[in-house]
Amino acid sequence: MERPKNLRITQRTAIIVIILFHVVGLVGLLLPMSRPLFLQIVPWHLLLMLLVTILTHQHFDNRFIGFMALLFVAGVAVEWIGVHKHWLFGNYAYGKTLGVKIFDIPLTIGVNWFLLIYAAGITMQRSRLKSITARVITGALLLVLLDLLIEPVAIHFDYWHWAEGIIPFKNYYCWFLVSAAMLFVFEKFGFKKQGIAAPVLLATEFVFFGVLGIFGIFV
Asked: What parts of the sequence cross the membrane (predicted)?
């Protein structure tokens, strides 16, 4: 089922929005005078990226809606297990930056898991890797690398914090396992080849958190 044209945006428009809002957000977070405001709009930034992703996905149908819902619920669930049971990731808790929480878990974390898995899945879909196993493993490793960049930024800007300020190794191998499981689900949904907006989002996240990690935590 094709989405009505008036409810779609072009890949070019999506890429412009993705890059523009990440650049604006980056500048806003790097400047001490504007940082409090930009920290407040972090959840809205995630929702904007969700909207862009939805409006660029081809064949918007019940299968895609089901995938979004499944990843959102799974994302919130694994974080609940992590926060309350410490079976996944380690001993951590969420701060205020990611917005409204239910049972101590920000709802936007479900959005974030969907965005990351979708972006990594599409990136692997567009790669030359023919094996599902290779795509899942490579995509999961990419997300672990991204998490290495996210962690110091997240701690500094009160996304979440770790008990005693120590990031356990468990966090990274759990990120790999959870990401791999979700990417396997992505593969099984069998979406047709998508445009480059999602890979651009993934690449932009690497740049965004890389620059913040280098400069943002020192200003």
From this structure: 12-31, 37-57, 64-83, 103-124, 136-157, 169-186, 198-218
Q: Which residue from 67, 64, 30, 43 is spatially nearest to 156, judged by alpha carbons?
A: 30
User: CA 67, CA 131: separation in Å to the nearest integer?
Assistant: 21
The confidence band for 217, taking pLDDT boundaries of 50, 70 and 90, is low
Residues making up the chain, counted from first to last? 219
C-alpha distances in Å from residue 36, one per residue of 90, 158, 186, 189 = 28, 11, 36, 40
Phi-psi category of residue 145: left, alpha or beta, with phi > 0 → left and psi -120 to 50 → alpha: alpha
Q: Left, alpha or beta for 99 (phi > 0: left; psi -120 to 50: alpha)?
A: left
Which of 5-14, 33-42, 94-103, 138-147 shows the lowest mean pLDDT across its residues?
5-14
10 CB-near residues (< 8 Å, 6+ apart): 56
**104 φ/ψ sector (left φ>0, alpha ψ -120 to 50, else beta):** left
Domain boundaries, the chain: 5-218
25-62 burial string, b = 16+ CB within 10 Å, else e?
bbebbbeeeeeeebbeebbebbeebbebbbbbbeebee
- For residue range 125-184, what is the model confidence (pLDDT) as tens digits? 999 999 999 999 999 999 999 999 999 999 999 999 999 889 999 999 999 999 999 999
- Identify the CA nearest to 189 among candidates 107, 69, 87, 95: 69
| CA-based nearest residue to 114, from 19, 178, 39 | 178
